[in-house]
Amino acid sequence: MVCRDYPDSPLLGVSVLVRRGSDVLLVKRGRAPLAGQWSLPGGLVELGERLAEAAAREVREETGVTIADIASLGFEEIIERDEAGQPRSHFVLAVFSARHAGGEPEAADDAANAAWVSPDNPDALPLTAGTARVLAAENAP
Q1: How far apart are CA 52 and CA 70, in angstroms?
Q2: What's the gap between Cα 69 and its chain centre?
Q3: What is the pLDDT of residues 75-101, one digit of tens each?
Q4: CB atoms inside a 10 Å sphere around CB 109
Q5: Other CB atoms closer than 10 Å to residue 124's CB: what's the count?
Q6: In this predicted model, what pLDDT tens digit does every residue of 24-61 receive, in sequence order?
Q7: d(C-alpha 12, C-alpha 92), whole Å
Q8: Closest Cα to residue 1, out of 56, 80, 66?
Q9: Which domains does the chain have, with CATH numbers?
Q10: Going by DSSP bridges, is the β-strand pair 111-117/23-29 parallel, antiparallel, or unpaired?
Q11: pTM for the full model?
Q12: CB atoms < 10 A from the CB of 79, how many?
């Protein structure tokens, strides 16, 4: 995706590790980049929107789930390159953790599926690299 105002600039997004007990909320991506892979819910930040507000909105829009106790976990980058090694897309993601506050996941917006999953078996689903890193870091002893 290229921003028409800044075509050579990275896009800012959010990603949220939502917990319900020991399970985490994942979505199967319905669109590029990384379509068909499972990731934390999230998306682009809107102009004038605070990062935590974007996190809550994106989780709600993609899954119908509401969240509470939003806290920053850091940042991730997704850079896709073409065959010549030139950047095709570049996303900077503010990653958050949150607690499930209500609702059951239903895929909406650009998610093809949404579900609570156990992080104990990370190889059970095809995860995006960033999601695998976040889950490994948050579940390390």
Answers
A1: 7
A2: 17
A3: 999 888 999 999 988 999 999 999 999
A4: 16
A5: 11
A6: 999 999 887 788 999 999 999 999 999 999 999 999 99
A7: 5
A8: 80
A9: 11-138 (3.90.79.10)
A10: antiparallel
A11: 0.89
A12: 12
